[in-house]
């Protein structure tokens, strides 16, 4: 039976060098509970190191949840951002390994880009990821869509209404035939305003997300997913308006 699930599918942790240092997986999950989110995706830049810890945090305590989706915000070779959602930890690990091989060579410089902290899912120990996560990967947009789709995942180009790091800002258009699940508009714009300003996105399923880099931003962009269960497959159906599933932007 279809039900309404409040979802924020674009949340960073302190693994992203540009995120606030209080964005631990546990703090993120607790804030998601406070604002009433049912489904969230942890989508750090070019990495998934804190997804497992967020899942562990969501399974603990007197109030369990929300459902945590394995996600990553990939920066492509064209320097545009794409939300990638994977259906399970096994396929998420395969995707992360592929992205890791495609990272720009070099090490992070915390004084320039910021710290990149990873929390172990079991012990809770915190370590630093030294990879250059702030730089674009060597994967093209077409590469990302092909690989994630083959893994049963969803690709959603990020914040298409922004100039920086968006598919429209970098390319000026959405390539015809690109097998994406939908598009994300930022929390700064309504669905109607987005369609008025960017008529080329008509026909695509749209979500709104917070792109949270600090705790106070979590849930400030939200989508209501009318789906049967909190899975990536159902999210794809909702974005495509299939089998009665749908998305409403709040």
User: Low-confidence runs (pLDDT<50, min 5 residues)?
Assistant: none
The name of the CATH superfamily reads Metal-dependent hydrolases
Number of strands: 11
* Percent of sequence in beta strands: 15-25%
The CATH class is Alpha Beta
Distance, first to last CA? 22 Å
Order of helices and strands: EHEHEEHHEEHEHEHEEHE
Number of helices: 8
Helix content: 25-40%
SS content category: alpha/beta
Sheet with most strands: 7 strands, mixed
Strands ordered across the widest β-sheet: 7-4-3-2-1-10-11
Global Rg: 17 Å
Blueprint (SSEs and pairs):
Blueprint: E1 3-11, H1 25-34, E2 39-42, H2 51-58, E3 67-75, E4 81-86, H3 89-101, H4 110-113, E5 117-119, E6 126-128, H5 141-150, E7 154-157, H6 167-170, E8 183-185, H7 191-197, E9 206-208, E10 223-227, H8 232-239, E11 246-249
Parallel strand pairs: 1-2, 2-3, 8-9
Antiparallel strand pairs: 1-10, 3-4, 4-7, 5-6, 10-11
Helix pairs in contact: 1-2
Structural features, described:
This protein has helices at 25-34, 51-58, 89-101, 110-113, 141-150, 167-170, 191-197, 232-239, and strands spanning 3-11, 39-42, 67-75, 81-86, 117-119, 126-128, 154-157, 183-185, 206-208, 223-227, 246-249. Helix 1 (25-34) packs across helix 2 (51-58). It is globular, with a radius of gyration of 17 Å. With 250 residues, it is of the alpha/beta class. The strands form three sheets. A seven-stranded mixed beta sheet has the order 7-4-3-2-1-10-11, sandwiched between helices. A two-stranded antiparallel ribbon has the order 5-6. Strands 8-9 form a two-stranded parallel sheet. 26% of the residues lie in helices and 21% in strands. The longest helix is centred in the middle third of the chain and has 13 residues, at 89-101. The chain starts with a strand and ends with a strand. The protein has eight helices and eleven strands. It has one domain (3-249): TIM Barrel, CATH 3.20.20.
């Amino acid at each position: 039976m279809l039900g309404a699930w409040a979802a924020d599918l674009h949340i960073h942790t302190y693994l992203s060098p540009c995120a606030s240092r209080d964005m631990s997986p546990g703090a993120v999950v607790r804030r998601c509970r406070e604002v009433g989110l049912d489904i969230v995706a942890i989508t750090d830049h070019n990495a998934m190191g804190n997804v497992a810890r967020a899942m562990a945090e969501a399974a603990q305590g007197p109030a369990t949840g929300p459902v945590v989706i394995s996600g990553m915000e990939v920066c492509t070779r064209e320097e545009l951002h794409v939300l990638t959602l994977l259906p399970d930890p096994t396929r998420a690990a395969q995707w992360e390994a592929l992205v890791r091989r495609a990272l720009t060579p070099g090490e992070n410089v915390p004084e320039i880009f910021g710290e990149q902290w990873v929390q172990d899912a079991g012990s809770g120990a915190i370590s630093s990821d030294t990879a250059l996560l702030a730089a674009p990967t060597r994967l093209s947009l077409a590469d990302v869509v092909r690989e994630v789709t083959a893994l049963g995942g969803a690709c959603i180009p990020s914040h298409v209404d922004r100039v920086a790091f968006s598919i429209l800002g970098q390319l000026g258009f959405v390539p015809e035939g690109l097998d994406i699940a939908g598009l994300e508009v930022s929390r700064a714009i309504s669905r109607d305003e987005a369609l008025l300003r960017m008529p080329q996105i008509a026909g695509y399923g749209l979500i709104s997300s917070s792109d949270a880099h600090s705790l106070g931003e979590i849930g400030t962009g939200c989508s209501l997913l009318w789906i049967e269960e909190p899975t990536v497959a159902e999210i794809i159906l909702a974005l495509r308006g299939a089998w009665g599933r749908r998305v409403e932007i709040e």
